[in-house]
Amino acid sequence: MPKDTGIGASSKRREDVRFLTGKGRYTDDINVAGQAHVVFLRSDMAHGRINSIDTADAAAMPGVIRVFTGADFEGVGTIPCGWQVTDRHGEPMQEPPHPILAQGKVRHVGDPYAAVVAETAAQARDAAEAIVADIEELTPVIDMKAALADGAPKVHDDLKNNLCYDWGFVEENKAAVDEAFQNAAHVTTLELVNNRLVANPMEPRVAVGDYAAHDDSSTLYTTSQNPHVIRLLMGAFVLGIPEHKLRVVAPDVGGGFGTKIFHYAEEAFCTFAAKAIQRPVKWTSTRGEAFMSDAHGRDHVSKIELALDADHNFTALRTETYANMGAYLSTFAPSIPTWLHGTLMAGNYKTPLVYVNVKAVFTNTVPVDAYRGAGRPEATFQLERVVDKAARELGVDPVELRRKNFITEFPYQTPVAVEYDTGDYNATMDKLLELIDRDGFEARRKESEARGKLRGLGLNCYIEACGIAPSQLVGQLGARAGLYESATVRVNATGGLVVMTGSHSHGQGHETSFAQVVSDMIGIPEDQVEIVHGDTANTPMGMGTYGSRSLAVGGSAIVKATDKIIAKAKKIAAHLMEASPDDVELKDGAFTVAGTDKSVAWGDVTLAAYVPHNYPLEDIEPGLEETAFYDPNNFTYPSGAYACEVEVDPETGKVDVISFAAADDFGNVVNPMIVEGQVHGGVAQGIGQALLENCAYDENGQLLSASYMDYAMPRAHDVPMIKVDHSCQTPCTHNPLGVKGCGEAGAIGSPPSVVNAVIDALQSAGHDVTHIDMPLTPPRVWAAMNGANATGGGGTAHGRSVGAGDTATH
Amino acid sequence: MYNFELVKPSSVADAVSALQGEDAQALGGGQTLLPTMKARLAQMETLVSLSHIDEIKGVCTDDQGRLCVGGGTTHAAAAEALSGYPALASLAARIGDPAVRARGTIGGSLANDDPSACWPAGALGSGATIVAVGSGGSREIAADDFFQGMFTTALDEGEIITEVKFPVPEKAAYEKFLQPASRFPLVAAFVAKFSDGVRVAITGASQDGVFRWTEAEQALSSNFSADAVTGLAAPDGSGMISDLHGSGDYRAHLVRVMTARAVTAAS
Ligand SMILES: Cc1cc2nc3c(=O)[nH]c(=O)nc-3n(C[C@H](O)[C@H](O)[C@H](O)COP(=O)(O)OP(=O)(O)OC[C@H]3O[C@@H](n4cnc5c(N)ncnc54)[C@H](O)[C@@H]3O)c2cc1C
Fold first, then answer.
1. Chain A residues with CB inside 8 Å of B186's CB?
2. Ligand 1 centroid vs A169 CA: distance in angstroms?
3. Atom of ligand 1 lying closest to residue B117 CA
4. Pick from A57, A111, A407, A761: CA 20 to 30 A from residue A292's CA?
5. Where does the record place the FAD-binding PCMH-type domain (chain B) (predicted)?
6. Which residue of A has its CA nearest to B257?
7. What is the mean pLDDT of each run of 10 residues along chain B (267 residues)?
8. Model pTM greater than 0.90?
């Protein structure tokens, strides 16, 4: 029976009322009295040496308060990186400084090198045009392999070269892996690109800095997924403001998808400038700026090899990846292609030997960091494409090949460090096959053929590690932060609760699902529970929302804090009922004593806590407020099986996704409707990556897809009705809710099935095409079928996922 | 956006005289011009809005049976009023999205002559006549003479399009292959069969903007069937636009595919 309230109920998202009626309070809605506006002057060249910047004319323009350049930030900290990766040889990665405004050089199109603060944004823009900058154009490096060649121009003159790190994982396994390849009965090899993406949240970034002279404190309002992280990074590493003098507020945030995790220069600028001019300073990104200043996602160029024995058991896996860091290291950039990618290369399979090599490369492009899935889509895409290719080469059923190699016993220690606690990959595969009517596919293919279309069926599995993350483990791996989460539960005298969480909601529906958890635990209506987040002034130190961690880690902290509340409330109830606390039960909002008819209501107990007339003051304090921190002892491992059917128009190469099915194992589910919505959104983004989205640079480092005229986002009609099932549930064994996280699965699991389906369609018509790089745009598919050039501007680009060029493999 | 004066004349005569001023520019629906201004890529002293001139709005039929669309008619209004020419109505109905169609005008589209715009294909494919009014009075320009390459037309400085006269063919269709980001045509073909021959206009493909594919017109004039098109070689790809969204060869290929599809749709 579906429940209608509490854990397991599809409660309607309470936040949607304000979002859908225009009542949300976003950062751009915040206007502080007396605020000035800043406009950034951004580089229009990919690489250049700043000889001089003349701001005199600009400073004299109407309304201008002050013009800033990099020189104003000498002695100020630089934007820090939150993760240090150690390379194959035990050396730390190369870590260049990232000044708030460019100093000495500009390093990508969009790199800010001056900023005008004026009374209005229009005046600031006018004045920005009056700045005269002498910037000498330098040869940019765009292609990652070319960037690593001897003598390549350096993005950062003070570094040895453009190699951030050369990471081997697990380095000790390398020789054994190589040997397994020598002994393999069959080796399948695939070279592929994971295309660079622009996250494109609906709300562009905004920052408002405010300085209060009366107490020497600063406030930053910002579009962030993690206000406390920004407070720590910006306060401690950039501006030298202690946390008790700095408040960061991230109010309603209109989508993040990872790109609002990071600490950005504009945030530090507004906070700094507000103090410098003693006026609040506001910046609102234009969409055009967002394309060239929000951290991009993905951008890997990989070679993957799979070794099999004569019985088709996977014996070893070897990958070599070039991962684009862009021009500077964004907050978590180094961790994405390593610890969120290499550790997932075992996938759902018991491959005993895995070796992953990742070369992270600086180029004159926008920094690249986490984007929905972050490293795990890149791992899944390689693995599930190569398994599909192997099945084709061996002439075996791709489902059977997967099943043969599935991990079936848990816990399972992978050869890439992580230990999967639970899972049932056959169950999700069975469920998937039930959803997609595989037996009926041939008839559907014939029907498509009759209409002149090629139909293909593609499927894949995925596993991801989320619920990020055990602090001690990530500390060993180079994280410069802990990854626990926090909650304070405050019960009011009249029985209502305020839950202050360190997680942040920017579309995920936490205000609804977190309330369901607490209301279920106590047995009171959901509307008695208010969820507060997004302001460092009224929430405990939290690490924010990303990596599908909020329910698994943040929700667990809420459970722990609520447990403490219940334990204390039971003592109060026991006192009121003159019973032993051990005999008191809480159910449906009432405390009872087992075996008696004694009962007190929740509200009586909460009132007693704050009006302690009849109260065990000698044993317990008045009040009912508890804080808990929860640090997970493992990642969580959602998994599943996805399938997709496409039709390819052989005349134009256009791909239509006809159907999509997702069978996920998310462990326990708190709100099935929200979970389905998360999967829908993730799948839409995955289809976008597979077919449409392409962040392309030309060889001069100009961003070709710098607006919606050229960057194709998926629209409603690009996405079919999606069958979503999450009835396969192997609860997480190590968090109190048994939940695994569902925010990224759709984006992780969907691209390979789309590409597998297109390859299936082309092969069915006799085209010997084994791979096409994403996005599978019409010209690319057409070119693959006809051995022609798909697009203009740059040919096949093997060190570059970002070029306009493209590859198909025959 | 830079500052400008906005004037809102209510007659063609007033608009023409306002446009004689220093650095004046006409504003149709603003669906091309406003984004350009917002990006600070266009600057003018005076913006002369044509939205308040009733005499250039709407569709009527002239004594030669031509459908005459006022230059200030929006795409949406044209789509509704062109029931006598379904292929053209369908072209108008598929431009952009509802917001764009509610504001954008046929006159603005033809004057702008974007190499990927829809109306130029409809006008050239129909053999339409464009009526332009300037300080020297009114003149009629044949579509064959009007389009002179990407973003270049026969309009003189300060001239506005007041009307476009479309002869109505026996059969016609417009087939549009979408550029996936902008949803403008990547390549689109407008095919119209008149009693005295067939016209084929292609947009989106050529570096010279909209053009007539004469080989196809000849083949179709003697045999109006998709086979007549598929039997032809695709036009030369070297003069075609080559970009992120498709090579010249791909566009040339699509010219043939879209033309054949238009013929099928028209038949
Ligand atoms: C999201 C989006 C999608 C679009 N999709 C398509 C599409 O699929 N197909 C397509 O064809 N177009 C598309 N467009 C463009 C749209 O059709 C515009 O309406 C059209 O290009 C310009 O018409 P306008 O009336 O808006 O002109 P404006 O933007 O006002 O003006 C454009 C130019 O024409 C001049 N001008 C305007 N009216 C006249 C006139 N009567 N006489 C002389 N000069 C004039 C102006 O001075 C200016 O130089 C799209 C636009 C947008 C924003």
1. 778
2. 55
3. 11
4. A57
5. 1-171
6. A651
7. 95 97 95 95 96 98 97 98 98 97 98 98 98 97 97 96 98 98 97 97 97 98 96 94 95 98 96
8. yes
